[in-house]
Write a structure and sequence with these properties.
Strand content: 25-35%
Strand order of the largest sheet: 1-3-4-9-7-6-10-11-2
Largest sheet: 9 strands, antiparallel
Shape: flat
Distance between the termini: 99 Å
Order of helices and strands: HEEEEEEEEEEEEEEEEEEEEEHEHEHE
Length: 416
Amino acid sequence: MNRRLLFIFLSCLLAASALRVQAQYVTVAPRVDDVNDEDVSIRRVELTSEYTIIYMTHISPVGSGSTSRRRSPLLDENSSTISFVPSSRLYVNQGERSYKFIRAENIPTTSRRIVESGERVDFVAYFERIDPGYTVFDLFECKDRLSEICFNFWGVHIINPKKQVYAKRNPTKPVPPRVQPKTQTKPQSAPPVVTKPVPEQPAETTAPEAVAISGLTRDAKTRKLIGATLTYQLLSGAETDGSSVADSTQSGDLTGTYTIPVDLRGRYVVTASKQGYLSQTDTLNASSRSVARDFDLVPITAGTKVTLKNIYFNAQRFELKAESYPELDRLVTLMQSNPTMNIRLEGHTDIVGEFDANVELSRNRVNEVKKYLVLKGISAGRIDTVGYGPSRAINTNRTLKERPENRRVEMVITKV
């Protein structure tokens, strides 16, 4: 008899536990406005009474080793390590509320897991339950560091309706009859009071906030306002399939002001250009709010020096990454539009490693840039190259934040 009672008791506990972890709302393949690391994705979000459970997948790139987590020097090029930082948080409504990380499954939080090239890792992260009514959250795992990209997501859209609160309906109390003053005549009963129902007022709806990219175009040397052409294209976002075409607008010749209305929210690439000036390009995130961006255009004159910001190489390697091609294609267009212009490409590194090796690395990198331009039809005689290594730093080179700024390719106009 005691065993039977114990069995019934344990069965009840298991049933209660199952009810407790049962998902209240499930969002499969949620819409995500922006992701920090393209190697990781969110497959599913479950909301239980206690947790926000996020199912994720990490796929290590094939061929060159993942950069999504710091690679150990003891690993080969096709291996990397991943982990999930326990100080992670979920944020809603621009940081109005935050929710703590609880635990993770199939991914370590105090050590690192080795992943091979092309390997898929499915893992789960548990956070505190997001309050009902918040249907968009940001997952901030950590802040990027040298050779390490965090699993950060912005604008994760989920099913999480606000709980309905129903007011208790009290029955309408009958209205007592009016008391008539005593008179000689026979008192008459008062007519019944009819309560007219008050029609429900429609809830006020707030129109979604208009989003735009706007700013000024100026001459970088004189700070004078100038008119320019602003070309823009939607790169990624929840409302695009990646096939958006480029469009353009003009800033005012006298005011220098421009406005790009954002009909489809996401990440935009915007290029400001004007005849006689170096064009300038930036990638702007217009997923949730308006963006202000001023463009200071550098006039094309001998001696002008600019940093080519979107040139990328793998760590300690000189082969160009594909992400560099759009920036270099714009440089090709510039040199085609100015056929007498000659340039010098200057390569720089940080102070990590041997000095001579860094000089050689910087020289090899600018030669790779020159090779790309020549393949696109630019005469090799119009392009000089020099590698300075770490000898011309633009800051102290002491911190992990400063060192990436010194790893750069600069272009100097030597002839117009």
